[in-house]
């Protein structure tokens, strides 16, 4: 579609992106074509020469990198996220807090893949904070964690499934560290239990847009507008005004 805007977007935006682009198309008449994937792998595609009009990343590093390479006109943070712990709901969890669950040797732990997927990078940052406060524990988690999604060779998450839901309910892991924006949906599954991670241990994810062509500027402006911000916050993301430094 010659008159459409082509977007590469982080997979964690998939659920809200349809609402954003539908509202944008209704307002402007311009259609949006989007491919989703781990932001690190999308960045590689852009660096290898793939053309896109807009790149929506789950961190600021990847958009800034392609801007420095002359592949983006501008970069703007547009929302924030954080981490939560998802577990298979069993009686063994009763009486345990989030950290006790993470450190319990009875439970297998999975994460997304660092470098390929910002979710994995944020999780490693959280492990570093745990290590600082509880020497040996963070390193143990780093060694224990299975990188089951978000990598170049990872199995694809089935359509319509959330990674944590699929991995836990299919028996591949007992625990998964993922984004808080999914927590509301995950709590609707009675086979899962979601633990909030306290702010002093948590890591804030700063999402950023790399506007690569002039025709993508109206879409970027819409996402940054009050209407776009309202849709993002309703979907469980933090507004851009509350984004913290990485």
TrEMBL record:
GO terms for biological process: molybdate ion transport. It holds the Pfam family SBP_bac_11. One of its GO terms (molecular function) is molybdate ion binding. Signal peptide: none annotated. InterPro entries: ModA/WtpA. This is Molybdenum-binding periplasmic protein. The lineage of its organism: Bacteria, Pseudomonadati, Pseudomonadota, Gammaproteobacteria, Enterobacterales.
């Amino acid at each position: 579609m010659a008159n459409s805007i082509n977007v590469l977007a982080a997979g964690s935006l998939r659920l809200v992106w349809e609402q954003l682009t539908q509202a944008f198309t209704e307002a402007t008449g311009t259609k949006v074509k989007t491919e989703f994937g781990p932001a690190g792998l999308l960045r590689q595609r852009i660096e290898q020469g793939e053309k896109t009009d807009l790149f929506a990343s789950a961190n600021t590093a990847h958009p800034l990198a392609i801007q420095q390479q002359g592949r983006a006109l501008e970069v703007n943070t547009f929302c924030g996220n954080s981490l939560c712990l998802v577990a298979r709901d069993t009686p063994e969890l009763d009486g345990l807090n989030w950290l006790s669950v993470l450190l319990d040797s009875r439970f297998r732990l999975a994460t997304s893949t660092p470098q390929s997927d910002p979710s994995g990078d944020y999780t490693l940052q959280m492990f570093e904070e745990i290590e600082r406060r509880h020497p040996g524990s963070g390193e143990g988690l780093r060694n224990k964690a299975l990188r089951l999604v978000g990598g170049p060779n990872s199995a694809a998450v089935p359509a319509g499934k959330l990674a944590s839901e699929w991995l836990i309910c299919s028996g591949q892991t007992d625990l998964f560290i993922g984004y808080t924006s999914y927590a509301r949906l995950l709590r609707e599954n009675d086979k899962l239990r979601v633990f909030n991670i306290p702010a002093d241990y948590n890591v804030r994810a700063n999402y950023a847009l790399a506007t690569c062509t002039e025709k993508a500027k109206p879409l970027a402006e819409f996402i940054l507008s009050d209407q776009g911000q309202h849709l993002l916050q309703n979907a469980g993301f933090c507004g851009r005004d509350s984004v913290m430094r990485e």
